[in-house]
Specification:
This protein is α/β, with parallel strands linked by helices. It has a single domain, classed as Ribokinase (UDP-N-acetylmuramoyl-L-alanine:D-glutamate ligase, 3-Layer(aba) Sandwich). It has eight helices and nine strands. A six-stranded mixed sheet has the order 3-2-1-4-5-6. Strands 7-8-9 form a three-stranded antiparallel sheet, sandwiched between helices. Helix 4 links the parallel strand 5 and strand 6. Helix 2 runs parallel beside helix 3, helix 3 runs parallel beside helix 4 and helix 5 packs across helix 6. The longest helix is centred in the C-terminal third of the chain and has 17 residues. Bound molecules: adenosine-5'-triphosphate and magnesium ion (MG). Magnesium ion binds next to loops.
């Protein structure tokens, strides 16, 4: 097949391959699009946790974005981990220059193992400036709590948080429900027109490393190919659900999910 769209990922590298840029590339590729990258940080991690992080200079991040996008114009952009306020500002600056309309922001703040991935000033400009510039923001529950100062315990709180984010200037919001301990997992999509609760069955497994990165890359891919945002969120939830359902059980900790669940190798390579 030929790729159906071109996506630029701005995010951090996960050496274990289950989350971050690696999850993004696998997702975008497995769903049939072309992936490009601007690496924001290099993490040393495995399924048991994050050992260390080195950050890439903001000017180098901007150069990766602008030099790449000027040559191969992205159909859409997915943004993941931005660790400092200087990086957030540099990314905003570059986005202003390259003028791509479809942008999905996963406001990554804390890794699954609990490591804090972003400083407080970065959270400030992400909230005051960046969320207005993107098409969709996809916080998990702890991130939605930090961004809104709400305590989120149930579906109503999730909807309230999404509405507050809309009041802060977000164009569309998906609050992810992975962190609420319910049997039926709910992702709440809120736009100016509607509220849609996207339900999926919770799978009991420790192997959920990278679900958030995978979900936002899948949304970006579907959206870049012309699906509506709501439909993209529904299809992405289904893709992640199937990826968790066929998880790999690699490693001693929280193992990766199966990004390849959507593809089959062509017979001519067998
Ligand atoms: N146990 C599960 N069963 C089914 N679906 C799940 C499960 N865990 C997560 N998901 C799906 O993955 C999505 C993202 O998960 P979550 O809400 O944990 O995001 P996250 O905290 O950003 O993840 P990450 O830690 O990878 O950044 C959820 O919204 C849900 O659709
Ligand atoms: Mg996340």
């Amino acid at each position: 097949m030929k790729p159906k769209s071109k996506i630029l990922i701005i995010a951090g590298s996960d050496s274990s391959g289950g989350a971050g840029i690696q999850a993004d590339i696998k997702t975008i590729t497995s769903l049939g699009s072309y992936a490009m990258t601007a690496v924001t940080a290099v993490t040393v991690q495995n399924t048991t946790g994050v050992k260390s992080i080195i950050t890439i200079k903001p000017s180098e991040i901007s150069k990766q974005i602008e030099f790449t996008a000027r040559d191969i114009k992205p159909s859409a952009i997915k943004i993941g981990m931005l660790h400092s306020s200087k990086v957030v500002s540099a990314v905003i600056n570059s986005l202003n220059k390259i003028k791509i309309k479809k942008i999905i922001l996963d406001p990554v703040m804390v890794a699954k193992g609990g490591a804090k991935l972003i400083d407080n000033r970065a959270i400030g400009i992400l909230k005051n400036k960046l969320i207005k510039k993107v098409t969709l923001i996809t916080p998990n529950i702890p991130e939605a709590e930090i961004l809104t100062n709400l305590k989120i315990k149930n579906t109503r709180d999730m909807i309230n948080a999404a509405n507050i984010l809309m009041e802060l200037g977000a164009n569309n919001v998906l609050v992810k429900g992975g962190h609420l301990n319910t049997n039926v997992l709910q992702n709440i999509f809120v736009s100016r027109k509607e509220i849609k609760i996207i339900k999926s069955k919770r799978i009991t497994t420790k192997n959920t490393h990278g679900t958030g990165c995978t979900l936002s890359s899948a949304i970006t891919t579907f959206f870049s190919c012309g699906k509506s945002l709501k439909k993209s969120c529904e299809l992405a939830t289904k893709y992640v659900q199937n990826a968790i359902g066929s998880n790999l059980n690699y490693g001693k900790g929280q193992g990766p999910i199966n990004h390849l669940n959507s593809i089959e190798v062509n017979n001519k390579y067998k």
